[in-house]
Amino acid sequence: MLMISEFHPWLLLDARSLRATMQFLSTFVPPAHSAEFLSVVLQATWQTIAMATAGLTLALLAAIPLTLIMTQCLSISRLGTNRMSMPASLLRHSARWLLLLLRSVPELVWALLLVRIVGLGPTAGVLAIALTYTGMLGKVYAEILESSDAHAADTLLKNGNGRLTALLYGALPQASSELLSYTIYRWECAIRGSVVMGFVGAGGLGQRMDEAMKMLADDQVATILIMLILLVTGCDGISRLLRRHWT
Amino acid sequence: MNTPTPPTLRVSTVLVLAALLTLIITSFVSISLDWQPFFTQAAIHTTGEFLLGFAPPDVSPAFLHQVALATAETLAMSALGTLIAALLGIMLALPASGRLGAVARASTRMLLNALRSIPELVWASILLIAAGLGPFAGTLALAVHTMGVLGRLFADAIENGPTLPEASLRINGVSPLSAFFYASLPQTLPQIMSYTLYRWENNIRAAAILGIVGAGGLGQMLKYHLSLFQMHQAASVIVAMLLLVALVDATSFALRRHMTRL
Amino acid sequence: MAIFNLRDVSVRYQDAPFALRGISLSIASGEQLAVIGPSGAGKTTFLHTLACAHRPDSGSFSLFGSEPWQLSHAQRHALRARLFLAPQTPPLPPRQRVVTAVLAGRLPQWSLWQALRSLVKPADTQAAYDALARFNLQNKLYARVDRLSGGERQRCSMARLLLANAEILLVDEPLSALDPTLSRQTLAVLQQEAGMRQATLVCSLHQVEFARAHFPRIIGLRDGRIEFDLAREKITDDMVTALYQNDQEMPDNPGAHTAPPPLIMNYC
Q: Which of A75, B125, C38, C126 is the least crowded, having the fewest Cβ atoms under 10 Å away?
């Protein structure tokens, strides 16, 4: 394992590498703080947040119908026979495979491919987040609904209600807080994901970082790193507040 | 008879909902998504061509051997990175759980927060300077980020665990360090193990993409072949990634089910 | 005119032994009958079979003159909207408000849009209030379901039944969590309501004396078979004793669900 991963810690202490590192670190202070650069960084930060939020919203819109298809306890054809009808189970399985495919390709790889299709810029990042997170949200939503107490929804179905009403009046009040807190948690993850998107040219903080690294502008890197820490810590806080509000 | 008055909506709920809605709307407005590539005739054509270019994936034995090597590299990076992170995480968890005073606790926690706030990929791109291109930088990046995550989790687990065994050792005159290693650590060991395994699972996924900035593994291969427009090879690498991630998912699901049943 | 017609109906769950065997009976429109029997006799399965929630393995079963299991999914589901099944465990989501939970009885008649709107602003609060008032629960209108006691939840689920526009009421053990006084009141409301809308009422009961005092027709179930199906005057104490002979009080806990493992949510 050490060999495969080319684990050579002594490289770090190599004179050349040490010099490069020292040079890099020494220019870290002071971080770049010209008003112009700061406004660029703030804009990039907002773009990162916006990409994550828009991507997650799209994922939510796509995941909800897929969840409805997947959730077994909302099946009408199952009533009485405990067996789903052929077309229903076929549909359910194809939804399951679609979700598996969507979430198994890492978001960064989606972004890498999408950048080729839609060109550089945040669109690729938003779509990449939307695709991956559709897969994650759909799977976990279905799991939450399946594992929560199905009695209320089941009774509504048995009294002749449609699956949407059974979901709204039976299953959702049961599972809503867990669904909400998982969604908020995913938003937090999407923020981190969208930072990274920039490295393949999808805009946001990552792209500024990549540029600064390539220009060897270490003071700028330092500023961006500080911004990154602030952003992630802030989102952690907001997410914790929201989750406490709803649970 | 008077009907009870309906409860009014909490002001905070209304505010939160309004804020969320504003956030979502301004996000979409400020990004101005570019849907054109998906809907114009010519764009659909080029997109189709681009996607068709991937088929068929390259399955020549020589290339598959390379892919297998890169997969092994990815796995090794994730395992080694997680192991280092777990060991260092335990060491940092000691001050972070308040065993060495409040000042040490606050400063260690701040360090851990900073470590985990910066994503693996960003760490990798920074560490490339010190460690050079290749899997070593990736391993270090995984280790540094994961150390932040695990250190925090371990510290929380230790703080929330029962304190009596450690306290009784301390009363008997044992030093704080020995008391920690003889009482608190063994108690939280199962939790530490399960967090580490869970994190390893995460890191396999992360290691697969670290190469995109040049830090080894499958990602580096993907980036290389994509930039040379060798689509068939890129397709094989993507399929390998997909299989790796799906396999890890399935294994961890099976393991977890097995463990909850025990 | 017969609303239910069962001939030689048997029901089983997957590979378990038969839960109901050779049930033959018919129930006329507007009839009120009680189903009694020891625990595990198949009372719940019987009600679920009547509600088209279990497919009989053999025998013929007709409802409103048609055979539901010969119909398409959609047609059968439309039939379900004409009857109301109230299970023994009140099917009320814990975090819902009582008013919403009660109004859910109206759902089969509502469009999706109405259902959505009523979630934000309850549609017919007066109706919900009146229904709750008949069980003395009117002051709980806006309480959350998880703040109610077991007995209150049970009556809340009966209030939902009052709002359902159904021709057949299938009620499973409506009195299991109530004291004798409340039991009498609740049963009276149920029977009065059924009589008023000329609905058929089938009610499974644990309390034999209530069944004999209030229902004109009584069915005794034991081991999935009908032991007797008679007018109440013809039932003797000996028959009841025989029905419950060797009955071990089986602790049935329909509401027991294991809590799902918490999702791991930490730092992506």
A: C126
